[in-house]
Amino acid sequence: MSERRFHVSPYLLLTLTSLFWAGNWVVGRGIRADVPPIALSFWRWAIAFVLLLPIAWPHVRAQRAALARHWRVLLVLGLTGGACHNALTYTGLAYTSATNGVLLASSTPIMIIALSRLILGKRVRPMEWIGVTVSLFGILAIVSAGDPGRLAALRANPGDLWVLVAMLSWALYTVLLHWRPGGLHPYAFLAAIALFGLIGLLPFYAWEIGSGRRIVPGWAAFAAIGYAGVFPALVGFIFWNRAVSEVGANRAGIFMHLMPPFGILLSMIFLAEEPAGYHAAGIALILGGIFLTTRAGARGQRTEDRRTRNPQPETHRSEGKGVDDASRRSHEG
């Protein structure tokens, strides 16, 4: 009897990842006075690496030759997705408001689409652009509290720039997953990324300590670091990498628009904030944009699959004739 494997929807994985990362923004902003940004980024990856290593080690040993062969690709992915993205995000949250951060983070799907076009030459379907735009309007409805005039009142600061660069780093990581070495086990792949991320963060962490910025011990600081290491870093990256490999960077990126509504939900639960009508309107637009984008991508994938299964008769006959002629000439030679 063949073993039946349970397949989890990549869209569920992307939704859960957005939930974990929304919590990460809340944590990063909430403990900025107790945990410096580089320290939070370093120890979150250290925890993820330690928890991952026991289950990843058999795969690392078995695939050590492949890991060594592709170390350059893994280094770039570890620096962009592990070191730079997290450290820059936490640095930005030390200076900018959560509203500004969410607004800038919501530009990530657009960055992913632009980089996919620039680096991979990937064509973007019109419906995908429409979906991203609709979802972005949902973000604007939330951060403006339903009043467009509030957007003009948002003040830029150095933290905004840090967050924007962090989102660009994450968009680049997501697109560069196109060159993820084939055949590597997900755990071996993530262990390599975590290790390279830690190596990249180490000199900056040493500089931060040398400048006198250290963790203030306390249950809140340790709980926040533990959460960041287990859910956003370990589980979130496993889910994200798996989903991107199945649905592609563009469709995965749109799910980052779920972070603001999840952030609102978490604020309601933990901060007792009251929901408003514009929250519902914004969430509806976000979900509508995600639906349009994923539907357009799924329809395009079905069209490509049909073309693969049913090639044009003329092309098929021509290719077949070419093969037969080549075979005949080979035999005659």
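[next item in queue]
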Amino acid sequence: MIKKSLLLLIGLITCAVCPARALDINGQWHAEFNTQVGTQKYIYTFHTDGDKVTGKAAAEVNDQKRETELKEGKLDGDTLSFVETIHFQDNEVRIQYTGKLGTNEIAFKRMVGDFATEEFKATRVAPTAPTNAPIVAAPPEPRAALRRPVVLGPDDKHIYPIPPAGFDTLRSDIPHGHLEMLTYDSKTVGNARKALVYTPPGYAANNQYPVLYLLHGIGGDEEEWHHHGSPEVILDNLMAEEKAVPMIVVFPNGRAQLNDRAEGNIYATAPAFANFEQDLLRDLIPAVQLKYSVNTNREARALAGLSMGGGQSLNFGLAHLDTFAWVGGFSSAPNTKSPEELLPDPGQAAAQLKLLWISCGDKDGLINISQRVHAYLKEKNVPHIWQVDAGMHEFPVWKQDLYRFAQLIFH
């Protein structure tokens, strides 16, 4: 009897110290999450052999589908890691996944090159689900430049502190501005186009307001800033504290073509972003001045944007200093012209500019573009602000840029 009890006790102790079996991830897993290029729907199929993981990722976004083989798959306890690769203009872009296993879900964090970091959960697909499930979706396909290693120099530092907590939080104790959609006729494109417009708290037709034209990125449209950047909240809060001049902000669609939605291969629409220069100058600005009570002097007009919109702002703003006195490029993209093209006459630009703002995140693979512009401006003695924040190519960085830029303009 004692012997049997001893054996039972040994068995219980042995079981107690045995490691828990890892979740069986074999089969299909579904995930759906939002990104700058739209909602992405994935079906991941995993096969395990010990700690080795193989499989495929099938995705769908904006009616485009794709399927890729997973690479470097590994299962380490409750952690799953693998790499998905996409190809753009003969360049391979790595998407690195790290997932924590739960009972019937996997909490993923994925890094899209140096472009973005996204978090989402995948849930198991019932075994009866078809194996040829929906297929994807190109995740945001950053340009090759996004894969560049980030090298920071002595000038690459933040000169403004991190905004205070709550700078982008909606407050109920202050007046709020108004958002509305403006439809205008575009002779440049040949159809009616839309722009979202913010008017400040207390907007009155007998006042004349300065105007900031704030541009989106290659995967966005006229509502990208509103959906991801809370600009109306940031501006309301600044104006309530008298840190920003009451202003109108126009959020255009910088993709000046007949179908201006962020659909299909968004990178193929790059020429339409260049075409927006004429739409902005010939069609949108006159339409804004016709409908709203605005100050039409150049010193009451600013142009800024993020990523592709940052490049547009530098390209268009610096080429038309008779129209814009305040220019800002937030994490400007590869569409940005060379500094020599942007400012062929640095002395004239220095005399005309009220503010030239250049900024980027310190982990953004596109920082070399802004670094190059800053270096040229510094060499040519063109006054400007060069701000480097902690972060990647993402809205947390751009919201801080807007917070600071809005306080500096129109004074």
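[queue empty]
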